[in-house]
Amino acid sequence: MYLEIDHVEKVFPPRGGAKEVKALDGICIEINKGELVTMLGPSGCGKTTTLRLIAGFEFPTGGNILLDGKLINNVPTHKRDMSMVFQSYAIFPHLNVYENIAYGLNVQKISKDDQKRRINQVLEMVHLEGFETRAPNQLSGGQQQRVALARALVMEPKVLLMDEPLSNLDTKLREKMRFEIRQLQRELGFTCVYVTHDQLEAMVLSDKVVVMNAGKIEQIGAPRDIYRYPKTKFVADFIGRANFLNGIIRNVSQNELEIEVEGKTIFLFDPRYVDFNAGEKVDVVVRPEMVHVRREEGKFEAKIIQAAYLGESIEYVLDLNGKQITAHETDPARLDIIPEKSNVKVSFIENCLHVLKA
Ligand SMILES: Nc1ncnc2c1ncn2[C@@H]1O[C@H](COP(=O)(O)OP(=O)(O)O)[C@@H](O)[C@H]1O
Ligand SMILES: [Mg+2]
Predict the structure, then answer these.
(1) What residue owns the CA closest to ligand 1's atom 21?
(2) How many domains does the chain fold into?
(3) What is the three-state SS of 246-299?
(4) Whether residues 17 and 143 fall in one domain
(5) What is the pLDDT of residue 225?
(6) What percent of the chain has pLDDT over 90?
(7) Range of the domain at 247
């Protein structure tokens, strides 16, 4: 393990009539060398605070931060070998592209020859060759963000920290930059902690996603694990979309759960559910894409409240025994819309469902 956040707590003291804020409540994260880890969560959950503690702009009020086995709690920021990229880019408006990237190298008194070599290298990485003498106001948002990235990378940091670096870009450019950052990170193998509130961005970029809520960690896992096996209702709802249905475990055998849901029995085959007991109440997590809506056949009876044609898919809101559930149909062979108010049959792709202890 390379970077370790060990039971870190951050309390901001009361100030000007405002109460104290416990921004981080004993969080633990382990980051390996060369990994890209994203911190994901709603606004105010503590993502930026975590990054600022790692960077040394703030210090923890409890717990420890270790880099390469050494305690760095009180090491000042300029001695941590970390670079940070911000949402606002924070490039210097009065310096051109080359000078912006050279800034940190000058502070470190790196020779002009070495500077030139390293700057040319990063300019190539971020596809800004030929832009050396441009002023920041002659660059697009995406180019400015590439300058910020180049300026961070040229320092060859032990850890690159990025705080919502793509939030100011439009959707298309954001999607492109996601892949560029991911590719660059894979090629160069730097260690990166990346903050975002955008779950798709987190899924695309990450080796590991840390899902945070109100100063605590809800779950840490690979993108597929947090989507497929969320540990809490919060994670199930924040990563993708989820319908929750009440269920009762009726039978547990070796690898199989038998669950009663809305008067019917569904089956889940997965050894990871062995610690459930018969009679236990559960929340069944049903992703919209796991719901099939048919005119003729299906396990449950339902009524269509809303039907919307989205081109590549159809979205239904259904009434199932008085509960609203959302279905997302992508089967192109069935892309005729069943009209609103129709009575339909609904079934689930049962083996893709997930259960949480209620
Ligand atoms: N310097 C500060 N003083 C007091 N409270 C702060 C300070 N910085 C952040 N906070 C509070 O800590 C919590 C977490 O903030 P932050 O880490 O910025 O969240 P995020 O980046 O996830 O949106 C929020 O409630 C915020 O208001
Ligand atoms: Mg923030």
Answers:
(1) 48
(2) 2
(3) EEEEEEEECCEEEEEECCEEEEEECHHHCCCCCCCEEEEEECHHHEEEECCCCC
(4) yes
(5) 95
(6) 80
(7) 241-357
